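LOG
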Amino acid sequence: MSIITVENLSKTYPVAVKEAGLRGTLTHFFHRTYRDVKAVQDVSFHIQPGEVVGFLGPNGAGKTTTLKMLTGLIHPSSGRINVAGHTPFTREQSFLKKITLVMGQKQQLIWDLPALDSLKINAAVYDISDKEFRGRVGELVEMLSLEDKLTQPVRKLSLGERMKAELLAALLHRPKVLFLDEPTLGLDVNAQVAVREFLREYNQRYQATVLLTSHYMADITALCQRVLLIYAGTLIYDGSLEGLLERFAPYREVKVELKEKLADKGEGGRSHTLCAEDSLTKLQTYGEVGAVEGCIVRFLIHREDLTQTVARILAELDVVDLTVTDPPVEEVIGRVFQAGAVA
């Protein structure tokens, strides 16, 4: 049975339209006209208990609007939502105890107080006993490596430590469903890795369901087996990362290490052999040249042409090494959004 059910979900905002100039201002003041902006359009998906699902899309695609509807912060214009057996926008206390929402650019901890004081407030809100509070804080502190940090004012914590403390506060009541909106935003590489490892361990330990949005594809590839892609308010893909590559990346990445790098231009703009432009033109006959760095050339080659093209490269170029892989998933998704692909 699904723990999150979304059927034909839509959200439309009326936006006032104002013409420029004094006349437009007066008209806007006395008689406003509106246009409808469709933030989310007819979105449907189901998530099973314990799943970790990535929710991806460019800025303005409708990700945060969808998360706010799933957590009951805003009312949908149409459609049906069920999260952990509840209709979110009714905001029942029993529902709020089952979910949490973490937004990387927002904070709930009180800036000038030690994080532990804010945690005690959260414990009171969620009716957590002192014994449970001490046990849960101790467990989460160990998982997040936050020893000796909770007694410091929040403003004195590093950004990574503060994000970990925010996660601790959000998970103190041990929710069944985690909605995470950019939880690693602005963190350095080490802090990002630490947060990912914690989320993976938390999911495995408590079988929590996670819906994660992130612009860092490393978050998605490290944590999610399944992804949802939303574009212009419409869901365009729901499936595995592998299926995403098969559907939207009809090419493979071929990385070739040549014995010699592309010739530099010599005196008068020419070298003794081929100039760089001539060499690049020749390389483009094998496929799309993604990048050239010294002796390393990266090609994007259509899957149906792969065998024949690799044979040509090996026969016609002075190759030291050659590898064939799928292109980076962030590049595939970027191309999908640039093309405005639809399901």
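LOG (cont.) second protein
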Amino acid sequence: MDDWTTPHDRVLAQRNAEGWMFLIEAARDLRTTGAIAPSGKTLARLLTDPVDERGARPVNVLEVGAGTGSVTRALIPRLSSGSRLDIVEANPRFAARLRHLVHAHPHLAGVGERVRVHHTYLEQLGTGHRYDVIVSGLPLTNFTPARVEAIMDRYLDLLEPGGTLTYFVYRGTRYARSLTATRAETVRHRGVEEVLADFQRRHATGCWTVWPNLPPARVWRLRRPADPAAPAITPTALAGRGR
């Protein structure tokens, strides 16, 4: 950018670049990209609110399926001193963009090691940590019911007792898919909804709809039950779970 551009111009340029990148990746594989546009500000705020609610004490945070980093940028300023953020992204082009974001972010000057980008799948993550907050951007309704159940179980395993998971699903996807989907696809989508509904019945503490998002999204907040006797999680144990 030249010297005549304003901060507002640079923000707009960044958003446009992210939008085009999402469209390109969606064209490559919409099932794993899961969206045609980055998450909006309101959606990002609702997903990351539990970090603020932890107060000033250090927290361990995990973001999964970070994409181009629209939610990551909302997370980083909310991290209190001494906190850790692990970011999981399976798409190599998104992961490279996230590493650049972390390297260049002004809030992380001198403490960038507290934020790490892992180019991997959730099932293969082995940091050896449990987390106070997990933020999921995975396109859960694009997966099989069995994989969604494994992912949700994995999230609960990775949470500290009393820890919080936030995730979102797009509204109206069942109706949209029903217009063109095969019977098998309709059954798969209904199965995913049933799996998620079971976790919501057991663990949900809140739900919000973000109408201005593209497309509109419903944010869910789940909590792992407090269990002071839960054993510490180890890299060996992590490596054997969620497969």
